[in-house]
Amino acid sequence: MFNTLSGRFLALTTVFVMLAEVLIFVPSVARFREDYLQLRLERAQIASLALLASETLDAELEAELLENAGVYNVVLRRDEVRQLALSSPLPEPIHATYDLRDVSALTLIRDAMGTLLDADERIIRVIGDPVQQGGLLIEVTMDEKPLREEMVEYGLRILLLSAVISVVTAALLFAAVQAFLVVPIKRVVGQIRSYADAPEDARRIISPRASLRELREAETALQAMETQLTGALRQKDRLAQLGSGVAKVSHDLRNILTSAQLFADRLDSSEDPLVKRMAPKLVGSISRAVSLCESTLAFGRAEEPPPRLARFELAPLVSEVIEAERLAAGDDAIAFAAQVPPGLVLRADSEQLFRVLSNLVRNARQAIAATGAAGRVTVSAHEEDEAWSIRIEDTGPGLPPRAREHLFSAFRGGVTKGGTGLGLAIAAELVRGHGGQLELARSDETGTAFEIHLPRSAPDLAVSG
C-alpha cells in the first residue's frame, strides 16, 4: 500500500495531522492545569469567607470546608493587616510553589509537563489573585496527585479525539486523492498502454479531458507526442515499403547491368575508331550504375550491427586504405600521404572504421580526379584526452553548395557529379554507432577536410591480435 501514491499520501496526512494535534495538546493540557488550580483557589476563597461570619470555627467544620475546597491550608490576605486562614496538618513537606499571578505561557507549559512526568505524591503551594477583588492574595497548599490524574484523563480524551479526527481527515483526503489524482493518472497510464499496443492507430491517441490544469497540460503534451509518433510510424512504414521495392528493382537491375558490362568489355577489342572512343564511356556508365545498385542494396538492409570494439593500431589500417585507393587511381596524378603517429592505438571496430575511411578517401580521390589536375589526399590522426581524431584532407575543388546543404543525407548529399551521397551517409552512421561524430571541418576552393572524433570513454579492451 505504501508503494502507491494514495497510500503514501494517507500515511503522510495521518502523521501531519497527529503532529498538529500534538502541538495543540501541549498548550491545552497546560491551560487545563491552570484552570484546575484557579478553581481550587476560588473554592478555597469561598471556604475562607466563612471566617467573616464567625471569628472562630470548630475543627469539624473547618475540616469539612477544606475537604470541599480540595486543599490543606488557605491564606486569604484581605489587606495589609487582616488575613483569614484555614489550616490542617500537612502529610508531607511542601515540594514546590507555583505563582499564577502574571505567569507566562512557556512557564505554564513547562510546569504542566513537569506535573505529568513526575509520578511522586507531592504537596504544592499555589498563589493567585482572589476573584471579584476579594483580597490582595490567596495562597493554598494541596495534593498534586488528583491534579495529575485529572490531567492524564483529559490528555487521553484529547488524544482519542485527535486520533478520530486524524483517521476521518486521512480517509477524506485519501478519497479525494483517489478521485482527483489517482483515477485520472491511472486513466492516462491505461491510455498509454492502449496506444503502445497499436501506435499506428490514430483512434488511440489520447484526448485531453482532465480538469486539473497540471494533468491536462501533461495530457496535451502526450497527445502532441503520440500524434507525431503515429505520423512518423506511418511515414516509416511507407518508406520501408518503398525501400523494399527499390531494393528489389536494384537487385534485378544490377544483374542486368552486370551482363551488359560483360558485353561492353568486349567492345574494347573492336577496330572501329568510334567504338574504341565510346566504349570506355559506356563501360564507365555501366560501372557507375552497378555501383549505385550495390550501394542502394547495402543501404536498404537492416541497421548496422553494433561495433565490436577492440584496441588496434591505426597506422596499418590507414596504409591498407591508401594502398587500395592508390591502385584505383591508376595513372591519375594523385598523391596519398599518411601522417599517423607510429604506435597510435585506438578503440573501435576495425572493419567498420575501414569502411568509413575508404568512403572518405575514395570521395577525396574522385573529387580530385574529376578536375583532371594533380592533387593530394592526406590522412592524419592524433590523440587527445577525451577522444581520438582522424582527419581526411584533400586538395580538390571543394564541395558543391548542394552537397553542403544535405551533407550525410542519403541520395541528397553526393559530393561528386552523379553521386548519391550514400557513402557519407553510411560513414556518418557507422561513426555514430561508436558514439563519435563525423563532421565537415573545411571546404573551399583549396580543398575539403573531414574529421572523425571517436570517444575514449568506453571500458578498456584487450589489444586485438
UniProtKB/TrEMBL annotation:
Indicate yes or no for the key word Transport. Answer: no
User: Which sequence ranges are marked TM in the entry?
Assistant: 6-30, 158-183
Query: Locate the Histidine kinase domain: which residues?
Result: 248-458
Tell me which InterPro entries the record gives.
HATPase_C_sf, HATPase_dom, His_kinase_dom, HisK_dim/P_dom, HisK_dim/P_sf, Sensor_HK_Regulatory, Sig_transdc_His_kin-like_C
- Pfam families documented for this protein: HATPase_c (PF02518), HisKA (PF00512)
Coiled coil spans = 215-242
Q: Which UniProt keywords apply?
A: Coiled coil, Kinase, Membrane, Phosphoprotein, Transferase, Transmembrane, Transmembrane helix, Two-component regulatory system
Q: What EC number(s) does this enzyme carry?
A: 2.7.13.3
Q: What class of enzyme is it?
A: transferase
Q: Record keywords: tRNA-binding included?
A: no
Q: Name one GO molecular function term.
A: phosphorelay sensor kinase activity
Q: Name the reaction it catalyses.
A: ATP + protein L-histidine = ADP + protein N-phospho-L-histidine
Q: What is this protein called?
A: histidine kinase
Could you read off the lineage of the organism from its UniProt record? Bacteria, Pseudomonadati, Pseudomonadota, Alphaproteobacteria, Rhodobacterales
